[in-house]
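Hi R.,

Here's the chain you asked about this morning:
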Amino acid sequence: MKVIEHINNAKSTLFSFELLPPLKGSTLQTIFDTIDPLMGFNPAYINVTYHREEVVYRPGANGSLIPTVLRRRPGTVGITAAIQHKYKVDVVPHIICGGFTQQETEDALIDLDFLGIHNILVVRGDADKIVGKFEAKAGGHRYAVQLVKQAIAMNKGAYLDECLEKPNPTNFCVGVAGYPEKHAEAPNVTSDLQRLKEKVDAGADYIVTQMFFDNSKFFEFEKHCREIGITVPIIPGIKPISLKEHLSILPRIFNVHLPQELVTDLEKCADNKAAKELGVEWAVAQAKELKEKGVPSIHFYTMGKSDNIVKIARRVY
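And the predicted structure, written out as tokens:
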């Protein structure tokens, strides 16, 4: 079933979560160990992220540093298929611009279609860690809206090879990302909202947001989206604090605002165990209010750990 169908058929707020592919050299059991404790809450769907290649510098024979391209995490397509096969739950792989040509993207979408996976979340992808900015691969997409358009074109039977005879259309439900506090690279909120509307106008079925810790930011974002004509469902994304270091890491990496009350309480935590418990309490309060306001689904970012998500889900669902 498509995500949008889950939302349209739901009688209450849905539960979903996001996983990271395991590091290269790990096994699928790593993923299953994260999923198993959460299956009791009947997730409507599970997201699996995609990570572009990375460049690391390794010492050469003469002492110079040689750039080496590697992928730290295995491909998302195979992991998505394995999860859907084992748990009989809908899985939403992330499809990214970074590191892929349009042809490679089309090939991945064809593979997903053959596997009976008809949900995707389209995102641009992270900036290159070495260069410090996003750079598209030659022949690839620079913006997520271009990737949305490619997926929607395939849904209409339009492939890159125009010589195909009577190509079968794909059947993807397309989700996109939204940023309640604006994307870090956007010049202002108005511009960021316009870019989001372009993705929806291109055919996106729903929006899932970046993490936030102040629900008023989400409600304001939702209001602004409706004011400019965005009518698709907007799903809030929640990530519980789990480390004291998140006090500085999360604002810097994800461009999110931490409410002063949360900052004060986190600074008082004696260790990471206390910080994790505080994160659970804060996320429970967030999720309960969001659920009371009737959001279609709450999407939890696990970051590969599910014990704190289990504690939250028990008190919310």
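The mean pLDDT is 90.

Let me know if you need anything else.
M.
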